[in-house]
Amino acid sequence: MNEDIDIPDMIEEPSHILFWQWDVILPIGVFVMIGILFNFAFTGLIMGVLMSRQYCKIRDNKPKGYFSHWIYSLGFMTESEKMKSVVNPNINRFD
């Protein structure tokens, strides 16, 4: 009766792309695409990596969901546009 229960430790983590979280890889992809448009792909890659590192430094000192709440408070994201990667545990039925 004393069976070990495996509890996942990444249940509240955001979506991942390979090893990285999506919000870390997004600036790299955006800056690479901008660099490709202006024929400076390597410069865009370097700028994306620098922006991603700076974002990680800022993100690690803030509580979870800080930037999504900040974007919502600025009016760039409405309630219906929020990303839903995890189902709300407080709802009684699924529609």
Provide a concise account of the structure shown:
With 95 residues, this protein is mainly alpha-helical. It is 46% helix and 4% strand.
Global morphology:
extended
What ranges have pLDDT less than 50 throughout 5 or more consecutive residues? none
Mean pLDDT: 79
What is the percent of helical residues?
A: 40-55%
Give the N-to-C terminal Cα separation: 37 Å
User: Got a strand count?
Assistant: 2
Please tally the helical runs, counting DSSP H or I stretches of 4 or more residues.
3
| Sequence of secondary-structure elements | EEHHH
**Oligomeric state of shown chains:** single chain
CA radius of gyration: 18 Å
The biggest beta sheet is recorded as: 2 strands, antiparallel
Main sheet: which strands, in order across?
1-2
Q: What structural category do the secondary elements indicate? A: mainly alpha
Q: How much beta, percentage-wise?
A: under 5%
InterPro entries: T4SS_TraL
Organism: Photobacterium aquae
GO cellular component, one term: outer membrane
Protein name: Conjugal transfer protein TraL
